[in-house]
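User: Please predict the structure of the protein below. I'd like the answer in structure-token form so I can feed it into my own downstream comparison script.

Assistant: Understood. Taking the following sequence of 205 residues as input:
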Amino acid sequence: MTQAATIVRTGRKFEQVLRGAREVFMADGFEGANVDDIARAAGVSKATLYSYFPDKRLLFIEVAQTECQLMAERILSMIDESRPAREVLTITATQLVAFLTSDFAQQVFRICLAERDRFPELARAFYAAGPENGQRRICEYLEKAVSKGELLVEDIPMAAEQFSELCKTRLWTRAVFGIQNRFSQVEIDEVALQAVDMFMARYGA
């Protein structure tokens, strides 16, 4: 893909196009998503849609990146880093478990897996916006917690990945295999609390 093809313009109807695309990708997946349907759902012409996104892959990537960014911002807005580490990690874990088991995250995961060989850039872009970005932000917090003496961590990147994996316990696997599609707040809270308990047992000062 050329550099020119990767340029995404912003404008008055940019958010409108993203909302329409999100709706169609969620319903039909990537391969089944039709540009006509996306334009119709967004309430714009095909010409307008193409003026923002000349390639359907770019549109999917932008939708995924935007959703991941919103999730990260939501978690950050809920966190007061002056609070104890257990409290901060519990908020983070609860939001992360909820996101991982959400319809959106599950659909994007399936799309990236299905299109991995034909369009590896889809998976790479989602990984960068989701897991990689999440790991970076967790690392940033862990470094602060270690500097304050709240946690004892030698390998911070490893600990950050371990924390994320703990948040996948039970529910994420059930969602991936379609065993369970809806998760109560009680189930989400239980996984989050257990994840934090185990993490603090290993790294708590």
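That's the full token string. The two ends are 49 Å apart (CA to CA).
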